[in-house]
Predict the 3D structure of the following.
Amino acid sequence: MYRKQQQPSYKQNRRKKPPIPIQYTQPIKPMLCQDGTRADVKAPTKRQQRKFDGTRTAVIKDFDDVSLIGSRKWVNDYGRNHPELVEAVRKLPVDRCILDAEFTFFKKGTDRDVPLTALATQAKIDEMGVEAKLVIFDVLYVDNDSVEHLGFDDRDEILRNIIPKDTKYLMVPKTVKNVKQKEQHFQELEKRKFEGVVEKEADSPYRQGERTPEWLKVKNWKSDEAIVCGCIRGNGKNSSTFGSLIIAQKGKDGKLHYIGKAAGLKGFEAQQMLKKLNATNVLKSPLVGVPSDVAGEVQQWCSPKMVIEVKYLNRTENGLLRMPDFLRERPDKKPSEVTLKPDADANIL
């Protein structure tokens, strides 16, 4: 069983590295969250942490060997392009460990996370003025011991014994326990337009690959109307219908501007929507500003007659909706009423 060490054991064992435990050679399946609501913030048995916008990453330390593996597909090692993160992990006071983290970019000198893939080029990183950090929020193994069976509170304590507080490139998010303090923390994040929080059951073990109500993500969602202008090809279970709706809003120039792809329609609901799209099918795009990668995924365009309501996180600087999801149709709204509206945190048409 893991015990806090007075001195880093790797300094004693550096000359002779023991055989690697099998768990360090197998892909890690991250524990996943279910969607929660604002009411879940008041759950007295749950702990609250800020949700960061990044790339889910398994941090694996085997003495001086460090890997930062994209844990969704287990293909990319992000450490190859970020030696500063690798070196920070290498200095941790344990021989071996496996940590669960979010590879996150922040505006330099701030705590504001920026939506950017871990595979971003150095040119893009420099252009956006950001720096990479590992937001480490859980621990699965320490040396030869699995700690997955322990409750979240115990794992959180172990993690804070491993990660130094003053490390530039590694951070452990604040854990808030008291209900009143959780509500205040959530309101602060909401006011600053951060993504939201994750509520974690205090005694929940780490369940690899499972999505359970023990972890709930509670986001600061907004909603707005949008005009449906087509759809994107679907994959897998959605191959017989479509993947997402292409949505737009009317700008001051009188043109329909692309604002994103709205997901959230499945099964019978998607089949019914496809029938409506087929009934108004057109050959040419009715809108402007469609990114080239999106244009290459188009299944079909449709006449811009249907208005829907979508929920979304916020707007990007060029007016796109981040993470839009279909909520419902709005037959009471006319397309001419659906216009681009400035957000407090974005500059749009």
User: Anything to note?
Assistant: Residues 5-14, 344-349 have pLDDT under 50 and may be disordered. The helical segments are 10-13, 83-90, 122-128, 152-162, 179-191, 267-279, 292-295. The radius of gyration is 23 Å. The first strand starts at residue 32 and ends at 35.
